[in-house]
Amino acid sequence: MTYYDILFSFFIYGFLGWCSEVAFAAFKQHSFVNRGFLNGPICPIYGIGVTIVVASLQPYVGNLILLYITSTILVTFLEWLTGFLLEKMFHHRWWDYSEMPLNIGGYVCPLFSAIWGVACVLIVKLIYPFTDKLVSFLPIWLGKFLLVLLSIALIVDICITVQGILKFNKRLALMEDIAKELRNISDQIGENIYDSMMDGLEAQDRLKARADVIREKVDEARQENADELKARMDSLKQRAEELRSKYEKMAKLPTFTSRRILRAFPKMMPREHVREFGQLRRILKKKRDELKKS
């Protein structure tokens, strides 16, 4: 295969893979869901995987058993590698086979590997000859022009998606920081109440010891402590309210990319900020349910 053929193969099978994912999601959820990693109608993992299979397994086309075995091994490795790299780069697990028997790290499992193997045999034997002939009908100049346009669109899409995911991760981190500060404020309020109570008890003990001599001074000190405590409490409560408002605003206004990704990958799990991630998912689910009812 030439570079020209490889690029066309990538875009064709990336698009067909996206179509299959969308069709599967529509069957399960009865609605359209863009199941791709990117915004556009393409799944790069399908484009890369099928292109590698088609390019490297042509010598085995005449032997169905060998073709199936090598296809299964190859696509299993590619799926594992893709899942591993995506998790390392973006700190999220995009799909999870942990509940499937004999899975490897949750990235791959025998059932889906077997399905991918069958799909690859069908592609190599039936679909690839058709798409290869289809591409050959295009004038070279037109084919190159289309590849340039598609490549530019793909690069732009990748940049937008990566930027959106990084912003999403940053938002989760900020939400976690706010939640930690709110917990610290809560602890400080509790400590202030405890300290005030202990000061009052100590003052009461001193009062019993000296009776009328220092009663007036103790009352004054107690009032000063109460005023100081009230000022500290009011300040902490105001700060807590500001943080709570900011947290709720961030949770209720997720970006377009984060909304799409959360819907496209329902089993995606973060390595960090699990609580905040779960809250965003619940909010988006609630909004979708409200839209369905209206």
UniProtKB/TrEMBL annotation:
Keywords, comma-separated and alphabetical: Coiled coil, Membrane, Transmembrane, Transmembrane helix
Taxonomic lineage: Bacteria, Bacillati, Bacillota, Clostridia, Lachnospirales
Pfam family, one: ABC_trans_CmpB
Protein name: ABC-transporter type IV
Coiled-coil segments: 204-253
Membrane-spanning intervals of the chain: 6-26, 38-58, 64-86, 107-128, 140-166
